[in-house]
């Protein structure tokens, strides 16, 4: 140290020499510690990989690679973890790095060739298999994989030729084998999806396109196409989810943003319309479904859905004739829709056209034999049977939606018209008495909530067959021992305010 206290150039040189000695000592210590740490990470990675704890194993291999970026085995082992996790795209760079560090590392070559083959990269895969066979001519796996790569190349050419000739069925047939060899190739799946679209099978196209969104790093085109396919099938929520994924990749993508605005608007209208129905706000729901048809007039599904739901709402607000018109249009658009047939049957019941109601329920049952449909058919058949005897609504000339005040008003008018005292001959009197009994019966049933409910359900509460105890006393048309003609024909009829 004393010798380094000399001034001038020799002093500076002495100080630098001392600094280098100190740094060398420190570096040796660091390198020694790093080597031990790397070995620890590699050992922990091996144990965790064997135990199936892949995420934890990967973390240790990350640390090992950071500690020694020149060790080809470390990259290879990390690639093995990526493959075990199903992350072939992440494994590929590590295998490539291992090969760069050790070009004759055949295990890495073979593994990379297998991945490239599954990705559909035939030329690159064949190069790796050929290198393996140059150094190890009898390597069976490399031989088999090279044959598969050659087969795949021929099949890819055959599939594209069939597609350009417009033979989509043949293209799909060839692509089945292509995808079997290269399941990670997005291009083959996209081509088969396009064939399915052209053949009118969007659901199979969706099945092929869905995995391609994971097979490409930025597959906005697939997300957009998926969104449009779901949209065309009426699956607006799925459509919205996919188009949002596109915008996550690039919020400024013009095609995705334009489609997003359309899907979002329509989806909101549809959801709002259903919420209004659940709240029994049927007229507002009708207006909202009218808006749906204006927002999307070109996709048949949404117009059909809107007509179906408007039909349902019109039945709920008891506008029978309007409901029959809209339901009939909906039925023409979608003849196998059991919901439309059910709702039109209910509209026919409201309009007292029971035979047509029975016919619609019977047809609906052919397409959807549910408890609701069976119950509706049974009710319509009961009402048809009753109508052939006595239909209290028709007797009074009121609709099935008439309120109590309207029923009493109609009753009074008819009772005055058909009062027996208004007629002179015995024949006319008897006819009038029969009419008057029907009018009075209708008023009694329709102004009593419980009896009216039974009648609306397809049961005549005044029919002796439907009364307990064998029927009202000797077949009288009046239950509860009430008969306005007990005193004979010369009685006085009075109206009472009800």
Question: How would you describe what is shown here?
Answer:
The chain is mainly alpha-helical and 498 residues long. The chain contains 23 helices and no strands. The chain has helices at 9-50, 54-67, 72-84, 88-101, 106-118, 122-135, 140-164, 168-181, 186-198, 202-215, 220-232, 236-249, 254-278, 282-295, 300-316, 320-333, 338-350, 354-367, 371-387, 392-396, 404-417, 426-446, 449-456. α11 (220-232) runs parallel beside α13 and α18 runs antiparallel to α19 (371-387). Mean pLDDT is 87; it is low at 1-6, 18-33 and 469-498.
Oligomer: single chain
Computed structural class: mainly alpha
Shape: elongated
Helix content: over 70%
Q: What gyration radius follows from the Cα positions, in whole Å?
A: 42 Å
In sequence order, what are the helices and strands, one letter per element? HHHHHHHHHHHHHHHHHHHHHHH
Biggest beta sheet summary: none
How many strands in all?
0
C-alpha end-to-end distance? 126 Å
Percent strand equals under 5%
- Quickly count the helices: 23
- Which stretches are low in confidence, meaning pLDDT under 50 for 5 or more residues running? 1-6, 18-33, 469-498
Mean pLDDT comes to 87
Descriptive keywords:
single chain, 498 residues, mainly alpha, 23 helices, 73% helix, elongated, disordered N terminus, disordered C terminus
């Amino acid at each position: 140290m004393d010798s380094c206290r000399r001034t001038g150039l020799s002093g500076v040189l002495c100080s630098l020499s001392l600094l280098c000695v100190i740094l060398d000592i420190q570096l040796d210590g660091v390198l020694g510690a790093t080597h031990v740490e790397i070995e620890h990470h590699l050992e922990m990675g091996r144990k965790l990989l064997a135990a199936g704890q892949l995420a934890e194993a990967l973390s240790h291999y990350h640390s090992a690679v950071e500690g020694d970026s020149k060790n080809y085995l470390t990259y290879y082992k990390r690639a093995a973890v990526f493959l075990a996790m199903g992350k072939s795209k992440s494994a590929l760079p590590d295998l490539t790095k291992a090969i760069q560090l050790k070009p004759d590392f055949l295990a890495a070559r073979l593994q990379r060739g297998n991945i490239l083959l599954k990705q559909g990269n035939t030329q690159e895969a064949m190069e790796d298999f050929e290198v393996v066979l140059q150094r190890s001519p009898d390597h069976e796996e490399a031989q088999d994989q090279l044959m598969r790569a050659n087969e795949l190349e021929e099949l890819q050419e055959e599939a594209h030729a069939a597609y350009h000739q417009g033979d989509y069925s043949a293209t799909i047939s060839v692509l089945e084998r292509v995808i079997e060899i290269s399941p990670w190739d997005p291009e083959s799946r996209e081509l088969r999806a396009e064939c399915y679209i052209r053949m009118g099978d969007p659901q199979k196209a969706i099945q092929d396109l869905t995995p391609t969104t994971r097979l490409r790093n930025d597959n906005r085109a697939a997300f957009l196409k998926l969104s449009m396919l779901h949209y065309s099938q009426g699956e607006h929520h799925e459509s919205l989810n996919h188009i949002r994924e596109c915008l996550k990749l690039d919020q400024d993508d013009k095609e995705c943003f334009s489609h997003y605005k359309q899907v979002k608007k329509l989806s909101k209208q549809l959801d709002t319309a259903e919420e209004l129905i659940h709240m029994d706000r049927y007229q507002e729901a009708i207006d909202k479904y009218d808006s749906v048809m204006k927002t999307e007039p070109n996709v048949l599904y949404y117009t059909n859905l809107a007509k179906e739901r408007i039909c349902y709402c019109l039945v709920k607000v008891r506008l029978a004739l309007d409901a029959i018109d809209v339901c009939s249009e909906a039925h023409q658009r979608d003849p196998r829709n059991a919901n439309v047939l059910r709702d039109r049957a209910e509209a026919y019941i409201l309009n007292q056209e029971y035979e047509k109601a029975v016919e619609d329920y019977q047809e609906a049952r052919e397409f959807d034999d549910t408890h609701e449909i069976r119950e509706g058919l049974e009710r319509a058949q009961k009402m048809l049977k009753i109508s052939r005897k006595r239909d209290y609504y028709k007797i009074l000339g009121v609709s099935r939606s008439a309120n109590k005040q309207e029923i009493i008003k109609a009753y009074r008018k008819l009772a005055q018209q058909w009062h027996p005292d208004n007629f002179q001959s015995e024949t006319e009197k008897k006819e009038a008495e029969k009419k008057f009994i029907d009018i009075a019966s209708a008023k009694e049933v329709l102004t009593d909530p419980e009896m009216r409910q039974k009648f609306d359900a397809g049961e005549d509460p005044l029919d002796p067959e439907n009364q307990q105890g064998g029927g009202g006393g000797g077949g009288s048309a009046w239950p509860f021992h009430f008969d306005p003609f007990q005193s004979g024909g010369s009685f006085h009829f009075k109206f009472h305010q009800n």
